[in-house]
Amino acid sequence: MALGLYGRGQNFTDEEADLLLRRGAGQHIDQMLTYAAVGTAREVADYLEAFRIKADADELITAHQAPTQEGRLRSVTLTAEAMGSDSV
User: How far apart are CA 36 and CA 56, in angstroms?
Assistant: First the structure.
């Protein structure tokens, strides 16, 4: 994930990627993943509903971090299905 955010269009060796993570990118990624709904459809739906209640939110905006556009669209579809939505 860090390489996708910080290294677009670049190829890193393992050592360079490790250095990137140690210089702050790793901490930034950890913070971004503080709230992450991962699992079965039921687990995702339960997690998002609990988060919505905790945040006292009327709506949630989700970010789908798959490495490809196809993967991100699939993630949106699965999330919509988990939440019982008929439209994406």
Answer: 17
**For 5-40, what is each residue's pLDDT tens digit?**
555 567 778 887 777 777 776 676 667 667 888 888
3-state helix, strand, coil in the chain (%, to 5): 60, 0, 40
User: Could you please report the per-residue DSSP string of 12-24?
Assistant: --HHHHHHHIIII
Among 67, 57, 61, residue whose Cα is nearest residue 79: 61
Same domain, 46 and 24: no
Report the C-alpha gap between 67 and 1 in whole angstroms: 8
Q: Which domain holds residue 50?
A: 37-88
